[in-house]
Amino acid sequence: MLVLAFDTATDVATTALVQGGAVLGERASRAVRILEDIDGLLADAGLERDSVERIAVGTGPGSYTGLRMGLVTARALSFALEAPVAGVSTLAALAQGASEAIPLIDGRRSEVFTLAEGVPVVVHTERFSVKSGATYVGDGAVRYRALLEERGAAVPTDDDPRHVPWARHHAALAANFGAAELAEPIYLRLPDAERALAP
Prior knowledge:
Blueprint: E1 2-7, E2 13-19, E3 22-29, H1 34-45, E4 54-58, H2 64-81, E5 85-88, H3 90-97, E6 101-103, E7 105-108, E8 111-116, E9 119-124, E10 135-137, H4 139-143, H5 145-150, H6 167-173, H7 192-197
Parallel strand pairs: 1-4, 4-5, 6-10
Antiparallel strand pairs: 1-2, 2-3, 7-8, 8-9
Helix pairs in contact: 3-6
């Protein structure tokens, strides 16, 4: 089964083609290049778009705009290719790529997205409970390195690949493929635009 996987929830968007557990190709760029990256992966593998049998898409949490781009792309491709979709948490994919590490995504506004007993949550950095001796990965770990390290945690170097939610992990975690609209984004809070308009 050929799975096309991608995630656009963070500043680094990733795409991958995975068949039978083997990674045929993978790229990292920006969300605005997602279709170009998909076409490039298929071309490199000598495959056409209609070879895609399943789609795994990152559902966040992360950037509202990035999430929408990824989910709209998944829905459009699902319709065009008649391929079912499975949503995969970006935090779960980060955790999959760094066993024993705690995933942190930069939520901006001095907040981070992380997992609490396997459930995605948003936490203000002032109230974030750091586990001394633990390793943290993700763009949130990079941004708040000083805070984490002064509280006894470890953060890999900024260029460590464990900070990236690689799409191969989305393909590995994907289950329950179905209608594209069932892949719902994990927002955890209102988008900035809606928050500004709230009374």
